[in-house]
Amino acid sequence: MSNSLTLITNELILDFLEMKYKINLHKLSPTPIKRMVLFNPHDCDICKKKHNICKQYYLTPFLGCVMCKKCSMYRRSTMILYSLSLSHYIIPWKHFISIFNSVNIIDFDTVYNIKRRDGAIEKWKFNHYDDAPWFLNKVIYLPMKSITQDIGKSITLVEFLDLNNIKDADKIMQAFITIYF
User: Fold this and answer.
1) pLDDT value, residue 98
2) Residue 48: Cβ within 10 Å count
3) Using alpha carbons only, what angle is made at residue 88 by residues 12 and 22, rounded to the nearest 5 degrees?
4) Measured between alpha carbons, how far is 54 from 168 in angstroms, rounded to an integer?
5) Which of 111, 104, 55 is nearest to 84 (CA)?
6) Which of 166, 91, 153 is nearest to 124 (CA)?
7) Cα-flanking dihedrals φ and ψ of residue 105, to 5°?
8) Residue 81: which residues within 8 A CB-CB, separation 6 or more?
9) Strands (E), the chain
10) Nearest CA to 88 among 114, 64, 119, 108?
11) Which of 41, 44, 73, 158 is the most exposed place for a label (fewest CB within 10 A)?
């Protein structure tokens, strides 16, 4: 077994690694998330005060947080989402697509092969509107939605890459492992 050092040349991955370092260095406490339905857009979730201008950060279409300018001042919006992502095990679609496409560009609005429980292969699409990719125990799950029925399921990123013969599958997996684990 040889000890080899992997050289990371992908700028986006380097940006995420820098953010991960800063998050760990500053020991940022996990930001609370809430359902982003019927909420007051002027209540900061961090300092719990009312402000005229607050920004909303969405992990999924319905989950996220609200921060005032002061609380979010020293963090980039990408870093806030990334911090939320790490502490709540959810990967925002915005990050997932940019990380994936930094290695191999695919169309996230088209249909892809999915294996059903009975072994049948069907065409499904990514579920951008109700859910987001999530991870647990070093496995990334992708929310998918049937194009013929109103049903959804999550499959692993590895299964998705295999079933759809995506090029550079190993590099894609390494990018996500580097950033999220």
Assistant:
1) 92
2) 7
3) 45
4) 40
5) 55
6) 153
7) -80, 125
8) 57, 59, 92, 94, 95
9) 34-35, 54-60, 63-68, 111-115, 121-126, 134-136, 139-146, 152-156
10) 64
11) 73
The answer to whether the CB of 52 falls within 8 A of the CB of 38 is no
Match 């079933």 to its residue by tokens. Answer: 163
Q: Which residues of the chain have pLDDT under 50?
A: 1-7
- Residue 124 sits at φ, ψ, to 5 deg, of -130, 170
pLDDT value at residue 120: 93
**């590895």: which residue's tokens?**
158
Helix axes 93-103, 169-180, angle to 10 degrees: 140
Q: How many CB atoms lie within 10 A of CB 35?
A: 10
* pLDDT value at residue 6: 47
End-to-end CA distance of the chain: 23
What's the rounded Cα separation, in Å, for the pair 86 and 118? 34
| Strand spans (E) along 36-175 | 54-60, 63-68, 111-115, 121-126, 134-136, 139-146, 152-156
Q: Are 145 and 151 in contact (CB under 8 A)?
A: yes
